[in-house]
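Researcher: Next entry in the queue.
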Amino acid sequence: MALKDNLVAHWKLEESSSTRFDSHNSHDLTDNNTVTQTTGKVGNCASFTKANSEFLDRSSIDSTLKTGDFDWTIALWIQTPSSIGPEGIFAWGDGFATKSVELLTTASGLDVQVTDTGGAESSHTLLAIGSMSGSTWYYVTIRFDESAEDIVGRIDGGSNSTFIQTTVRNSPTVLRVGRERGGAYWDGEIDEMSFWNAYKSDSDLDEIYNSGSGLDFDDWDAGGGSLIYTPRYHNHILTR
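Model: Structure for this entry, 240 residues:
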């Protein structure tokens, strides 16, 4: 499968200010409170200051950009602040009534929180707080396998962490980057954020991770991407 197969949006986040453009489609992100620019993992990136309540958003998302009860993949580079505390990184949804998926740091570590179709919320820790370092880049991928009913998280091309998630709410109306739905803001950097409406293989994500150097979006599919689907239950961590 080629890297751009089933890709809905990719934000390089290279802009110095104002709108952050979708390099693959037209799902551009609006700047709120002047998100700035700094050196990123690949080129430049978006830099967020928590004290200024800075974030990016798309206030109305169509069905192609929504997370929900079907296969999807989210991937992005994040650079943690020097002091890691409770902060929001992204949220699909605005408020508890529409929240679907969000990524944030908590007292436990780097968590993905998912709301099911019945409104119940589950929190899954991708990286324990004791294993996280400040001012460090991490490549974070989150996937939902609708048929297996699993959320699969991965950090820096390592082993997959698999969590039971029977369903995922289909109703997010907004995408926010640099904060979570309740208003906890990020105090670090985000680079090269992608969303596919498919479950991307480990091999595809490894190609983008590129041994920790990252792969510029302009070079995606230069070599064709991976051609086989990688089974997810080999050397994975299964949490029940």
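Model: The helical segments are 202-209.
Researcher: Noted, moving on.
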